Amino acid sequence: MLEERAYWLAWSQINGIGPILLQRLQQHFDTLAEAWTAKAGDLAQVEGFGKQTVETTLQAREKINPEQFIEKHLIKNPYFWTPADPDYPRLLLEIPSPPPVLYYRGNVDRKENQGITPTVAMVGTRSPSEYGRRWTRKISMALAKSGFTVVSGLANGIDTEAHIGCLEAGGRTFAVMGTGVDIVYPQQNERLCDRILQQGLAISEYPAGTQPNKTNFPRRNRIIAGLSRATIVIEAPHKSGALITAYQANDFCRDVYVLTARLDDERSFGCLELLSKGAHPILPSSDRLLSEERLLEMLGAMPKLDTAEQLSLFPPNPTVEKQVPPLPPEWAKVLSAIESGPNSFDVIVEVSGLAAGTVSSILLQLELLGLVSQLPGMRYQRC
């Protein structure tokens, strides 16, 4: 594992080799360590490796010793995950372009990384109205009190309000940054970032010392969406970065929710656009007042924190529990692997100890029997 970790880091230093090409390399060679020693002809067989990319790779490999590089890198970047690490966030592994290196600072909770503790993103404009600020605080506080981890981007406006509301409720929050985790941007959020490090994490795909760059912030939005089972957009004008996050969340098969928008407010035009394309509106409760309890009901946050039941974004089926018929041993292994609640496909494969193709076939049979159901993002739960 340590060796493979070094090669994830080494490959990430080569210009033109991004997350998608790295996944193709791993699939083709089984390990990135094996890919590192591959000849030019073998590299050329990987989709996306044209002549120039192969030449760039060969030249870069001559200058990098992976084992030595990781030792030197750890001096300034002591905390990071790669997909070879067991603590790499599982939800990120489900997206098409997971960061090959994910740096972090703060307080790690492995239940979040394993997808057990539900995570929800809150994003929006940097110039919110009083209405947007107020409801961001109310919603983030409600989510925190119900056991959700709130994910946002530490920007001015809605992001700041989301982090603060969560922290004031005693919850955990992730700040996904477009800089190195040691560089706080905007600077006025330095004290807020210090609080986040006590009750959550600062996360970035950029190494220590990376300064603000306008191209980095749109890229980090996929990480906000990828870390979260659902994304909530509070206020967002046209061309807002929050819309990028929302569309990426939709591409990742994650739910998108939108705060009820005002028709005459430019800060809500992006929200109206999302609603027209199928996002879930955060609707009033039965007394015609917008309520955070209504949102929690929509998200399916059923149990309280003081219960032993696992939190889930997805409401349980209101049906009588099915009697499980006698199953073949391998089928029983797969079913028991999802006994604790919605689990990703990768988790089921790992827990069951079976091949991915076998698990996929068995899950289909269990669905036909009505014993499991598939959720967005290749997650499965018992019926």
Provide structural commentary.
The protein has helices at 2-12, 19-29, 32-36, 40-44, 51-63, 66-76, 90-93, 110-113, 130-145, 158-168, 190-199, 216-226, 241-251, 269-276, 292-299, 329-337, 345-352, 356-368, and strands at 80-81, 102-106, 119-123, 149-152, 173-176, 200-204, 230-233, 255-259, 280-282, 343-344, 372-375, 379-382. With 383 residues, the protein is of the alpha/beta class. It has a nine-stranded mixed sheet, sandwiched between helices. The protein has a three-stranded antiparallel sheet with strand order 10-12-11. Helix 13 links the parallel strand 7 (230-233) and strand 8 (255-259). Helix 9 runs parallel beside helix 10 (158-168), helix 12 (216-226) packs across helix 13 (241-251) and helix 16 packs across helix 17. The two termini are 36 Å apart.
